[in-house]
Design brief:
- This protein has 315 residues and is an alpha/beta fold.
- The protein contains eleven helices and ten strands.
- Strands 1, 2, 3, 4, 5, 6, 7, 8, 9 and 10 form a ten-stranded mixed sheet that branches.
- The longest helix has 21 residues.
- It is globular, with a radius of gyration of 22 Å.
Length: 315
């Protein structure tokens, strides 16, 4: 009897010790607010990884986006994160004004994905039609120290303005900004996101809007990583003309703490699952393998390099 009990105890202990060994890891996907583009894409990626990487458990975390995501990666509290290119550059350089007290040296890029369009939208009855019209009006610039908020500062500075020129500055996520605009408590919102972001689609169906242009000379004044782009007509309800604006490339970033094998699988599955990402959000249609390995201000993860070498994108 005693020998049977000992054998059972040994077997139980063996199972307890072997269980963690069977699990290959955990992937926490750091996204943004639930009304933005990062979140639905992150949910899709989390499901893809959970379904297709053996032994890996996934979690998708809503965050304040770029800046917070990069800090969490450095702290080992995430394995994959969405970020804007200018925030990534600031993190790598340790730009304190952008919210980084020191250089985040563990960051490693997985892929360049789609461009974030700077979308400045005002209610029609606010009378805002140009950037200059924002003076004295109320504007939501995104969550504090988020990638969107850093974009807001850059755009206003290039247009010869600061927050002091704005009548009232609100630091709010996309959905909360839209709620205030619907209630006539906010004149305009600047949202840095993929085209067709849910928050602005919602706003355009609830009230008449004006999509404010960011002229090319202003974009050129800011310079890289900003580029001049166009928001196509009819992206939003009532927007019947093309609108020039600025864009910044988004990146999927990991950490040097993530194993090369796991980073390889994470990279590979992104580009083997583009239809699923396109179904999750229209911005997923803009993710291209051809440009995935280029332009990052931080080094590519060795696991990502392995995949891009297989595809002939990296020598």
């Amino acid at each position: 009897m005693i020998s049977k009990m000992v054998a059972a105890a040994v077997a139980a202990a063996a199972m307890a010790f072997s269980a963690p060994a069977q699990a290959e890891g955990f992937i926490n996907v750091l996204t943004g607010g639930t009304s933005g583009v990062y979140y639905p894409l992150g949910v899709a990626i989390g499901k893809i990884y959970g379904d297709k990487i053996a032994g890996v458990k996934t979690q998708v975390q809503a965050t304040k986006a770029s800046v917070e995501n990069l800090i969490l990666l450095q702290q080992g509290r995430g394995e994959l994160a969405f970020t804007l290119g200018d925030s990534l550059k600031s993190a790598w350089e340790g730009d304190e004004e952008a919210g980084f007290k020191k250089k985040l040296d563990k960051l490693r890029t997985i892929a360049a994905i789609y461009p974030n369009y700077i979308q400045i939208v005002a209610t029609s009855d606010s009378g805002i039609k140009t950037l200059a019209d924002l003076k004295g009006k109320s504007l939501s610039v995104g969550a504090p120290k988020s990638g969107t908020e850093l974009n807001s500062r850059a755009i206003l500075a290039a247009a010869g303005m600061t927050y002091k020129d704005i009548g009232k500055v609100e630091y709010l996520p996309f959905a909360e900004s839209v709620d205030l605009m619907k209630n006539r408590q906010l004149n305009a919102t600047l949202q840095s996101a993929g085209l067709g972001v849910a928050s602005l689609k919602d706003l355009s169906t609830a009230t008449d809007i004006t999509v404010v242009s960011v002229p090319k000379p202003i974009v050129d004044k800011i310079g890289p990583p900003f580029i001049a782009v166009t928001i196509p007509a009819n992206t939003y309800n009532g927007q019947d003309k093309d609108v020039p604006t600025a864009a910044v490339v988004n990146y999927l970033v990991s950490s040097s703490d993530v194993s090369d094998d796991l980073a390889y699988q994470m990279t590979k599955l992104i580009f083997e699952s583009l239809p699923e990402l396109a179904n999750a959000h229209a911005a997923g249609k803009e993710i291209k393998l051809e440009t995935a390995a280029s332009g990052s201000p931080v080094p590519l993860h060795p696991g990502a390099i392995r995949y891009y070498k297989e595809k002939g994108l990296v020598k």
